[in-house]
From TrEMBL:
InterPro entries linked: MyTH4_dom (IPR000857), MyTH4_dom_sf (IPR038185), Rho_GTPase_activation_prot (IPR008936), RhoGAP_dom (IPR000198)
GO biological process: signal transduction
The organism of origin for this protein: Timema monikensis
Alphabetized GO MF terms: GTPase activator activity
SMART domains, per database record: MyTH4 (SM00139), RhoGAP (SM00324)
Protein name: Rho GTPase-activating protein 39
């Protein structure tokens, strides 16, 4: 959630949420359970470094009777110290209780031509597919449809589903919050959906956004008294004991939410937004810039650190901690002077392109790109048909890559136009098909399209544009 971003987002600062006013959380949040707030705050802070195993030490104590296997969610704990109990006055349920809640309350789904029932474990595990009926038993027909649409919105926010045309991360979050706030019967449904999508989730960025979404929803409405202890338990399993702030815990719930939101959840980031949103973020600081500051800064850093004389530039991975540190500093408009490895800004630059909420080359032009990937004149026409901002950003990128495609540079870096296109294309083009065969076949065409641009596009007009 919070700083994962990659704290990752990883990570990272939280994508696309700079438009939320933290003070908005004060309305309607007074009833949010204290332990839920603390748990979400601490969970959000730990998602950034996202890990591989998350069974808390308190869950490893010996029991008289063996428990069923825990559902897995890859969130790293920063410490092995025992988790501090969220509420000393109330013993929280164990993680297994959310499975018991599911057994008693889930609207068990069926699959296949023989209508085989999903197991509870399947129902509580991340899914890339939409649901055809609510997770919980709902009698109202209209609400059933809303519940299914709500799951799609959750998937969109978590980047597991393609967003609607014109949507942004902010508008999707607002739509989810509006549904939950205006239709109380959907609140438990929403929270169980988020619990599902943050369990056994294989995608780091998706997982971060899921916890982020949970914190946002809790800022506006709480779960029912019946589901509340189970949500407490679920969050307590994943909380990071390294973020126990006793003085903050004494504040009213809505103040805690606004405080944490200001520090983590709602802090705007230059990663994960649309190009237009990035330009809005920098407008006050750089009102005359025509290109994203983050793009130019990282590109210049690669050159300053002798990236054009570094073998495997853009191909060799950088140190993860160094990349995350650099990302965090840049989100605060700071450029560390102690960076010495050109691979760090190079890796972060690729990440920035890849995490754009909408691809640099819009979906509506994708088919043209892969169809005419080897035709210089057609590829140049496609570039000229891009929205003005997208065109400038892409041409700046191509001009930058053309530096590395020079023969004298290639002799050192071993990264010619084909190799550069191979590592850059997936960050600029996103296949619109879900068919693995199409994705595999188009990958070659995407690379060819980028190679054609590097070799043929005249970018001299970008001289002096920043």
């Amino acid at each position: 959630m919070g700083s994962a971003a990659d704290c990752h987002n990883n990570d990272d600062s939280v994508d696309g949420l700079g438009y939320y006013a933290p003070s908005a959380a004060s309305g309607g949040s007074a009833n949010v359970h204290q332990s839920q707030k603390d748990a979400v705050l601490q969970t959000g802070c730990c998602v950034q470094t996202l890990p591989l195993e998350t069974q808390h030490a308190s869950l490893k104590r010996k029991k008289e009777a063996p428990l069923p296997p825990m559902l897995y969610s890859p969130i790293l704990e920063h410490t092995e110290a025992p988790c501090v109990v969220l509420s000393v006055e109330k013993k929280l349920p164990s993680e297994s209780d959310i499975e018991k809640y599911a057994q008693d309350n889930l609207n068990i789904h069926k699959k296949g031509i023989f209508r085989k029932k999903f197991s509870v474990r399947d129902m509580l595990s991340w899914s890339k597919d939409p649901i055809r009926k609510p997770m919980l038993v709902i009698s109202d027909k209209a609400l059933k449809k809303d519940a299914c649409e709500l799951f799609k919105l959750v998937q969109m926010y978590m980047s597991d589903r393609k967003a609607k045309l014109g949507s942004t991360l902010t508008t999707v979050a607002l739509e989810i919050c509006h549904l939950g706030y205006s239709k109380p019967p959907l609140r438990d449904e929403l929270y169980i959906q988020i619990c599902r999508q943050t369990t056994e989730n294989p995608r780091r960025e998706s997982l971060r956004r899921g916890w982020e979404l949970l914190a946002i929803c809790l800022a506006f409405f709480s779960p029912s008294p019946k589901f509340q202890p189970y949500l407490d338990s679920y969050m307590n399993r994943h909380r990071d004991p390294g973020f126990d702030f006793l003085e903050v815990g004494k504040w009213p719930i809505h103040v805690q939410i606004s405080h944490y939101a200001t520090l983590q959840i709602f802090r705007p980031s230059m990663f994960g937004n649309t190009l237009q949103e990035v330009m809005v973020l920098q407008k006050e600081r750089f009102p005359h810039r025509k290109l994203p500051w983050i793009q130019c800064t990282l590109s210049e850093e690669v050159l300053r650190l002798q990236g054009a004389q570094t073998e495997g530039i853009f191909r060799v991975s950088a140190d993860v901690d160094e990349v995350n540190t650099l990302k965090s500093r840049l989100d605060h408009w700071e450029l560390p002077a102690d960076t010495t490895d050109a691979h760090a800004p190079a890796s972060l630059l690729k990440l920035w392109y890849r995490e754009l909420y909408e691809p640099l080359i819009p979906d509506e032009l994708y088919n043209d790109c892969v169809t005419h990937h080897a035709e210089p004149e057609r590829t140049i026409t496609i570039v000229n048909n891009l929205p003005e901002l997208n065109k400038l950003v892409l041409c700046y990128l191509v001009r930058f890559l053309q530096i590395f495609a020079r023969s004298e540079v290639v002799q050192v870096t071993k990264m010619d136009a084909s190799n550069l296109a191979m590592v850059i294309a997936p960050n600029c083009l996103r296949c619109t098909s879900q068919d693995p065969r199409v994705i595999f076949e188009n990958a070659r065409k995407e690379m060819a399209f980028m190679r054609t641009l590097i070799q043929s596009l005249d970018t001299s007009f970008m001289e002096g544009i920043y």
